[in-house]
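Hey, can you fold this?
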Amino acid sequence: MGQKKGGGHMAIIENWYHQIPAFTDVFTEESFYMFVVCFVTATIAVVFILSRFITLKPVD
């Protein structure tokens, strides 16, 4: 009742912020490096596979 208009949005954002785990709760140093290596490898593999099926043609 004493809140300004739009104050409910900030409460929702703060609620979500407190529910999301911190970076250090999710990753250790080793697990972060393993994630990055797997992510980069998977990205390169997907791009390589997609490059076989997608052909770009110049617009005339």
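Oh, and this one too while you're at it.
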Amino acid sequence: MSDLYVWLVLIMTAMTTYFIRVFPFLLFNAKRPAPNILLYLGRVLSLGVVGMLIVYSLKDTPFSSPPYGLNEMLAVSCVVVSHLILRVFVLSVVGGTALYMWLVQSAILNKFF
């Protein structure tokens, strides 16, 4: 794979990402506001996507073998509690992910079972 090919792929990926991000602002502006159905979907789908991510993240959790899903439940609890306290979504997710990775890598809960 040549360097030119890699650079062309990177440039095309950046241009595509930029276009995808800018397109809604070009399509809907002060002269042409977004339809109500799109505004409704923007409010409702974000919660639905988060719910689906939670289900997808926990679907393969082994609740019948040690540590009985405690790693995942502690991480989810960390996300919920930190979000209720801090109200910063990114910090909550990063904190929960860091806690989960620490629990899994250190296998600290496995020592109790």
